[in-house]
Amino acid sequence: MRHWYAVMDIKKDIYEHLADIYLDASYKNKSKKKSKYSLRFKNLAFIGIALISVPTIFLFTSLNRTPASNALILVPRIITINLNDASSPQRPLHSINLDRKDLSRYKTLAFSVRKDSAYPSRLTLRVKLTSAQKQKSEIYLKPISSSWDEYALKLNDFQSISNWSKMLNLSFIIDDPHTSTNETPQAGAVYIDNVRLLR
Fold first, then answer.
1. Of 59, 89, 116, 157, which has fewest CB within 10 angstroms of its CB?
2. In whole angstroms, how large is the CA radius of gyration of the chain?
3. What's the whole-model pTM score?
4. Are the C-beta atoms of 180 and 140 separated by less than 8 Å?
5. Is residue 181 domain-shared with residue 152, that is, in the same domain?
6. How far is CA 183 from the centre of its chain?
C-alpha cells in the first residue's frame, strides 16, 4: 500500500512538473506573440503616420511656397509721391531704374495704389515704360481712390514696346488738375505698394 502511495506521489510530482513546464511554455509563447503583435502594430503605426505626414507636409509647403520664382519684386517698400512738391516743375512722379533688365519672360505688371483720403482732387495715374531702344509706352488708369486698389497690367497692352530684352525704367506719373493750371498744389500724397512683375 505504501508502495502504491509512493507511486502516486511520484506521478503527482511528474504531473505538476509537466504542468509547470507547459504553463511556462505557453506563457512564453503568449509573451512572444504579444511582442510580435506589439512590434507589428508599432511598424504599422509608423508607416501610417509616414503615409499621412509626408503628403501633408508636401501639400503645406507647396501651398505656402513664395512665388519668388514667378515674380520679380521691383520695389520692396511703399513708394510715396508727394503732390505738393514745389521744387519740381514736372508732374509728380516716381521713376524706377530697371537697369536694362530682360523682361521678355514676364507678362504682367502688378501693384497697389491709393491717395490720401483728405486730398479732394481727382487724380489720374499714368504708368510709363521705356526700353533701351527708346521705345516708350504708357497706360492711363482710372482716378485714384483713397483705398488700396490692386492693378495687374498686361505688358502686351504697352503696345509701343516691341523689344523687352533691355528695359530702362518704369515711371508712375500723377496727373492732377491743379498742376495744369497756376493753382498751388494741395498737400497730399499718392502711395504705391508691392510693385512686381509676374510671369
1. 89
2. 40
3. 0.61
4. no
5. yes
6. 46
The pLDDT confidence band at residue 118, using thresholds 50, 70 and 90, is: confident
Q: Which domain holds residue 87?
A: 70-198
d(CA 85, CA 174) in angstroms, rounded, equals 12
CB atoms within 10 A of CB 139: 16
Residue 177 has pLDDT above 70, yes or no: no
32-73 per-position pLDDT tens digit? 555 555 666 666 666 766 667 555 554 444 444 444 468 899
Rounded to the nearest 10°, the torsion over CA 32, 34, 35, 37 is 120
Q: Smallest Cα–Cα separation from 151: which of 104, 114, 97, 120?
A: 114
Q: Which residues contact 116 (CB under 8 A, 6 or more apart)?
A: 146, 188, 189, 190
Q: What is the pLDDT of residue 122?
A: 85
Final residue of a structural domain among 65, 88, 115: 65
Residues 81 and 179 in one domain: yes
